Amino acid sequence: MWAVFAASVLGSPVAAQSLRQLPSDLVLTTMVAQGASTVVLGERQVRLSPAAQVRGANNLIVLPASLYGTFRVGVKADVQGMVHRIWILSDAEWAALRPGN
């Protein structure tokens, strides 16, 4: 019975198209990560906070040390200016969050 329910909910177009609830004050930018405690946001190299949390496009936590490449992201900083939260955005999220949409 559970398998039928899960298949009907998870396989529905509504589940596939829903966007995550993201903070309204995100800063949208691109991020270049090379598996270290610093990343390049836009053109500026910044340090990740010791408790930095990165969420992938699937909303699962990603270890900063395992990130390599260029991503479209939404970021929030802590009170000391270090990057504290990063959300890697899907193409749909990026398009929906860009100004003018």
Low-confidence stretches: 1-16
Task: Tell me the radius of gyration.
Answer: 16 Å
The total number of structural domains is 1
- Beta-strand fraction estimate: 35-45%
Strand order of the largest sheet: 1-2-3-6-5
Average pLDDT over all residues: 83
Number of strands: 6
Total helical elements: 3
Structural class estimated from helices and strands: alpha+beta
The separation of the N and C termini measures 41 Å
Order of helices and strands: HHEEEEEEH
- Overall shape: globular
What helical percentage do the residues reach? 10-25%
Write the layout of secondary structure elements.
Elements: H1 2-10, H2 13-17, E1 27-34, E2 38-41, E3 44-55, E4 61-62, E5 68-77, E6 83-88, H3 91-97
Parallel strand pairs: 3-6
Antiparallel strand pairs: 1-2, 1-5, 2-3, 3-4, 5-6
Q: How would you characterize this protein structure?
A:
The chain is an alpha+beta fold and 101 residues long. The chain has one domain (27-97). It is built from three helices and six strands. It has a five-stranded mixed beta barrel. 12% of the residues are buried.
Which features does this protein show?
single chain; 101 residues; five-stranded mixed β-barrel; globular; disordered N terminus
